[in-house]
From TrEMBL, chain A:
One MF annotation (Gene Ontology) recorded for this entry: oxidoreductase activity, acting on single donors with incorporation of molecular oxygen, incorporation of two atoms of oxygen
Keyword set, alphabetical order: Dioxygenase, Oxidoreductase
Family listed: Belongs to the intradiol ring-cleavage dioxygenase family.
Pfam families linked: Dioxygenase_C (PF00775)
TM spans (from-to): none
Domain (Intradiol ring-cleavage dioxygenases) ranges: 71-99
Protein name: Protocatechuate 3,4-dioxygenase beta subunit
TrEMBL record, chain B:
PANTHER family: DIOXYGENASE, PUTATIVE (AFU_ORTHOLOGUE AFUA_2G02910)-RELATED, PROTOCATECHUATE 3,4-DIOXYGENASE ALPHA CHAIN
Top-rank taxon, per record: Bacteria
Record-given protein name: Protocatechuate 3,4-dioxygenase alpha subunit/protocatechuate 3,4-dioxygenase beta subunit
Entry keyword annotation includes Oxidoreductase: yes
InterPro entries per UniProt: Intradiol_dOase_C, Intradiol_dOase_core, Intradiol_RC_Dioxygenase
Length: 222, 199
């Protein structure tokens, strides 16, 4: 059989990771079958044009609690080619660490002005922009006192490029103990948004977060 | 392909989707590739099927909240990609990409039976995102298809090939042939998963 692929790491202190991470080394895809493993997502569209502003539930509603931020960046492949018209699906907790999701049973406080879900498309240069509330950290493992650092989830799909990732925030005390950050090692840096001046926009903080889709998410149909 | 010896940009790390991938992002058109909006005339060519099964963890428990993505060729074995654009055998009513989130860990996905691409047996690529993992990928084959015996992916897993073959459950439902395919993410009976990096 020859060489195997990677052995996936199990996130320390992450029970779900222990339950769901394959134990066998990944198999290498036979060369003749490689392209068949690369989905090409049909062109997507944004249904609700106000979703880029996740600091409110609708344009005529008040701001949610917390610090409004702007996140901007560029989606490209490892060779630097922009990924245009890619759909970003974004979700994050509110200021109190609660998701507006029917399966979040944490009991943390809901905010009636916070939905925490939005979608935007990248432009011709692969650029995107959205507003959000800077999310709260939350206690993920009360039994051992492990917190999840504040983070924003992003799912990116465009053509043959596909990735689900999270943007973290610099200098957060819980970054170092996060199971997935531990698995990323030094490369965790790449997943931290870079603070920048928000300029004249109606937010308090700005972050740049460029997304490079490469490695095993390689784009085969550039 | 090491980053030290190439000009490639360092890739952003994948990360888990966590337990709360928004149900709000569901798209019914991606959960049933045979579906058409009311009043629209059109039909994907081929045999409609329902692929049903469970996603299980290493204790045999259902993997709740998993996000499943599917990718396949049309009934003539042609993938809709930039490489096949304009070809006669591209089905204008079938793009081949599906996605659903299963709340419980059990799933049902309606599509058409894929045709055989050159040198391959009919198959559907399955990508799973869930809490605790980044992504895992495999291919699903179909019981009784000619080509299963010589498919390079099935051959590559040797004696584990039956774990990648969906079984016909002997009946039809709503005009669809029903196939059963369970995924075992980890532990005893673990499904073979694939990696496209030599590492």
């Amino acid at each position: 059989m020859g060489k195997h692929g990677r052995v996936l790491g199990i996130g320390p202190t992450d029970n779900t990771s222990d339950q769901r991470t394959p134990r066998q080394p990944l198999r290498l895809i036979p060369e003749v079958a490689r392209s068949s493993f690369v989905p090409v997502v049909p062109a997507r569209y944004v249904t609700n044009p106000h979703e880029w502003d996740m600091t409110r539930t609708a344009p005529d509603r008040p701001r949610a609690d917390g610090v409004p931020i702007e996140v901007t960046g560029r989606v490209c492949t490892a060779s630097g080619r922009p990924v245009p018209n890619a759909l970003l699906e974004i979700w994050s907790a509110n200021l109190y660490g609660r998701y507006r999701h029917i399966e979040d049973h944490s009991g943390l406080r809901l905010d009636e002005n916070h939905l925490g879900m939005g979608r935007v498309l990248t432009d011709d240069e692969g650029r995107y922009r959205f507003w959000a509330i800077s999310p709260g950290a939350y206690l993920a493992r009360p039994d051992i006192g492990r917190w999840r650092p504040k983070h924003i989830h992003m799912s990116i799909s465009g053509g043959a490029s596909r990735m689900i990732t999270q943007m973290y925030f610099p200098d957060e005390p819980n970054n170092a103990s996060d199971p997935m950050a531990i698995l990323m090692g030094d490369a965790f840096e790449r997943n931290i948004g870079k603070p920048r001046d928000p300029g004249g926009t109606d937010v308090e903080e700005g972050y740049d977060f460029d997304i490079v889709i490469g490695g095993r998410n390689a784009t085969f149909f550039e | 392909m090491s980053e030290l010896t190439s000009n490639l940009l360092p890739a952003t790390n994948e990360d888990t989707c966590g337990p709360y991938f928004p149900i709000y992002f569901a798209d019914p058109a991606l959960e049933d590739l045979t579906r058409f909006d009311p009043g629209v005339v059109g039909q994907a060519a081929g045999t409609p099927i329902i692929l049903r099964g469970r996603v299980l963890d290493r204790h045999g428990d259902l993997a709740n909240g998993a996000l499943l993505e599917f990718w396949q060729a049309n009934a003539k074995g042609v993938y809709r990609t930039p490489a096949t654009e304009g070809e006669d055998d591209v089905d204008p009513w079938f793009h081949g990409y599906g996605r659903l989130r299963t709340a419980s860990g059990a799933y049902g996905y309606r599509t058409i039976l894929p045709g055989a691409a050159p040198g391959r047996a009919p198959n559907i690529t399955l990508t799973i995102f869930s809490d605790g993992i980044n992504r895992i990928v495999t291919q699903i084959f179909f019981e009784g298809q000619t080509g299963n015996d010589t498919d390079p992916v099935l051959l590559s897993v040797g004696a584990e090939a039956p774990k990648l073959i969906a079984k016909h459950d002997g009946r039809t439902a709503g005009g669809c042939e029903v196939y059963l395919f369970d995924v075992v993410m980890a532990g005893p009976g673990e499904t073979p998963f694939f990696d496209d990096l030599e590492s």
